[in-house]
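sorry for the late reply, my laptop died twice this morning and i had to redo everyting from scratch. anyway the thing you sent over, i finally got around to it. pasting the sequence first so we're on the same page, its 617 residues, then the predicted structure underneath. double check i copied it right bc i was rushing
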Amino acid sequence: MSMTEVRIQNGRHDVTPRNSAVERISAKGLRRRGDVRSFFERTAHPNSAIEAAAALDHSVRLSMASITGGLSPVSLGLAVADWAGHLVASPGTFSRLTTQGSLAWMQAMQQAISRQGVPSADPRYADKAWHAWPFCALASTHGVAETWWKEATVVRGMEHHHEDLMQLLSRQWLDMLAPSNWPWSNPKVIKTTIETQGANLLRGAAHAYDDWRQSQGLLPLKPEEHRYRPGIEVACTPGNVVYRNHLVELIQYTPTTRKVQREPLFIVPSWIMKYYILDLSPHNSMVRYMVDQGHTVFMLSWRNPDESDTLLDMQDYLQLGVMESLAVITDRTGGIPIHTTGYCLGGTLLAMAAASLARTDVVHSAPIAPLASMTLLATQLDFRDAGEMGVLLDEAQVALLEDIMAERGFLTGHQMAGSFQFLRARDLVWSARMREYLLGEPDVPNDLMAWNADVTRMPAVMHTNYLHSLYLHNELAEGRYEVLGEPVSLGDLQMPIFAVGTLKDHVTPWRSAYKVKRLVHADVTFVLTSGGHNAGVVSEPGHAGRDYQLMLTKATDRRISPEIWKQQAPYFKGSWWPAWHEWLVAHGSGMAPARPVSPLDSVAQAPGEYVMTRYTD
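ok and here's the structure:
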C-alpha cells in the first residue's frame, strides 16, 4: 500500500500525509545487515551496554571525521599501508622509481634553465609570466612530481581500490601544493600585488571572510547569487504543480503548441540537487526546449528533507517519487504510454521502477501506463567502476558517513557539495580561490554555478541504503536489488533506450554509462557528448563548441567495447537535444491536441514550493 493517501477533489490530485515521516516509516522493516533504521535509533537512544559502547565508538569516529574532513582515517590508513608495504617489499621498484624521479627532476631543471619551458598543456601555467625564471622551474618540477606520483602509487600486488585511492589522494595533495596557489610563487599574483599596492589581497581577504561567514550560516546568499531566483530568472518555464505528496511535487508544463506528441514525457532528476538544472535560464532550459518542440513535459521536484525525514528510504523514493507520479500521469493522460527520462541518480531510480513494472507478477497500488521509452542522462546502472566518487567509498567510509548522518538524521547539502569539490579541487577550489583570494577578483556565478550552490540534504536511511546497495554491493546490476520485496532485473527492460554519456564526467564516467548496453535486452541509442556531468547535459542548440557522437545498437547486435564504439560512432557538430527530440518522435505514435492544465487541477504554480526550500547548514 502507498505511504500516502491520494485524494481527488474537484479534479485536483492532492495528498494527505497520515502522520509525520518518522511515524509513517517506523512501522516498516528496513532490510540491511544490522538494520539501518535501528542503527540510527540506537545511536540517538543508547539503553544497554552494547549500545553504550556503540555510542562511544560513534563519538570517537565523529571526532576523527572533524579532523579528516569527513574522510575515513581507516580507509586512508589501509591504502597507505598497502602501498608502503608493497613498496618496501619491492626494492627493485623502489630503486627504479627513485632513479627515475631524480633524472626527471634534473632534466626539468635543465630545461627550465636553458629553454625556460613549462608544462604546455596545464592551464594553471598558461600565463606568459610562468616562462620566466624561477617560476618556470617551479612549474616544471611540479609537473615532474605529478607524473612521478602517478606511477609511484601503482605497485604490483596492491588492491585496485587502494591504488585508485592513493592516486586520488596524491593528486589532491599535489593540486594543493601547486605553485599557482601561493602568493609568493605565482608571478601573476606578485605582479598584481605590486601594481595595486596590495589592494588585491585586501579584497581577497574580504571575499574569504564573507565565504567563512556564509559557511557558518552568518551570511545568507552572496548578493550576486540573488541574480538567479527560482521562478524568476531560472526555473521559470510556465507550468503547474498538479500533484504533491510528502516527498515530491509533480509539475506539468504549459504547452506552447496547438498540437503535442501523443506520449507525455516524464523527467526524474537526481534528488541530490534541485531539479531546475534541466530548467535553467530560458535560453538553455531543456524543459522549455522540449515543450516548444511539442512535448507534454512532467517534472519531479524533490522535497528538501529535514530532521523528520530521517527514516525515509530508497523504497519511499521509488514509491512516493516515481511510482505515484507515473500513476498520476497515467490518470491525467488517459493511460497513454509514457516517455520517461532520468538524470544521474534519477535515472538509476527510474530504471529500478521500470524493472519492477516489467515484472508481471508484481501488483502495484495504482494503474500505470506502459513505458514507451526510457532516456538515461549521465546515469550509472552498474557501479563496479563508479568513477572518482566510487574511489572514496568503501565499508569504512560508509560507516563514518552513517555516524555523521546520525547526528542530525541527514547528510547536509554542504557536506555532499564538499565531496564533489574534493574530487574536482583543482577547478572548484584552488583555481577559484586563487582568483578570488589572491587576485581579488570576485567569483561572479552564472546560472549553472548558482544552481550548483543551491544544495539539498539527503535523509540518513535513504542515503545509506543507496551507498550500500549500489556503490558497495552493486545489487541493481547483479539482479539482487528488491522493489516491493521482489528482486528486479534490468534484463527485463525491452523498451527503446536513449542513453547519454559525457566525455569529462567525473561522477558517471561515460564508459560506466555505456554499460547499459549489456544490462538490458533492448535497442540502445548511445550518445557521447562533449562537456562534463552537468554542462554536457545542459547543451542547448547554439551553444558554441558542442559536439557529440551517436549510434544505435540493436538488442540482437553483437556487443562491442566502448573504445570500439567510439571509433565507429558517427560524429556530429552542435547540441544532441534535436537528435533526442527526433528519437522520441520516431518512437511515438503521432500528434494529439495540446493538454492545458485546468485551474482546478493546479495545486500551485510552477516551480512550486519544494524547490524554494533552502538550508544554511
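Residues 91-114 form the longest helix (24 residues).
thats about all i looked at so far, will dig more tmrw
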